[in-house]
Structure formats: structure tokens, C-alpha cells
Structure prediction request, 127 residues.
Amino acid sequence: MLIKSIKISKKIIIFSLATVLLLSSILIFYSFASNINEEKQEDKKNFIKWVDFNVSSEALSLTAKLDINSHTKNEEVTYNWIELLAYLACKNGGNFKNFKANHLNSLVEELKNGHTINDLTRRHEVL
Prediction:
């Protein structure tokens, strides 16, 4: 009855409702999308993008030989060359320009004396 008294056609009402529904759906979608983008940007701020890890060839060679020999010769202490390099990098601030074999030798002696990499890193963490 209301439609007949105002003389608005059904097509105009349906078109108007569809337009309002479409616009509100778009607005809701973009509001959720912007919230997701903000969360992703916050996540991006919370991690390290990259770190330069320029290991000297001497350090790579010595640690690789230790790792291989400890596994092939079934030594009592097996070495992981990645852990050895990571420990040395942390100890020297990531700078292998001043790498000396003595640093690796002292680390190997600590490991032979029964310490683990976890023990050694925790000990230096407290200091």
C-alpha cells in the first residue's frame, strides 16, 4: 500500500536496497582488510629481516673438518659445525676478520671437557 500511495515502483525500491546493501558490504570488507594490514605491519616490525654472516674460509674449513671427523671417526664428542660457527660469531660480534684458530680450539676443549653449547651460551648470557 505504501508503494501505491507514494507511487514509487518496486524496481526503484529493490535497486535502492541492493545499492545500500552493496555499499555497506564494501565498507565492512575494507574496514576488516585495513585491520588485517595493520596487524601484518606490526608483525613485520617484530623480526630481523637479515643479518650478514661473512665467515672466513679458514673458520668454515676448520669447523667442517671437525664436524666430519667427529662423525666418521665415531669420536666421543660429535661437533656440529653450524653450532660452532654460530657460537664463534656471537662471541666475536659476527666479525670473522679477527678469527683465530685459538678461539675454536678453546671452544673444542670446553666441549671435550663435558660442556655443551647450551651450557656455554648460558654461561656467557649471564655475564
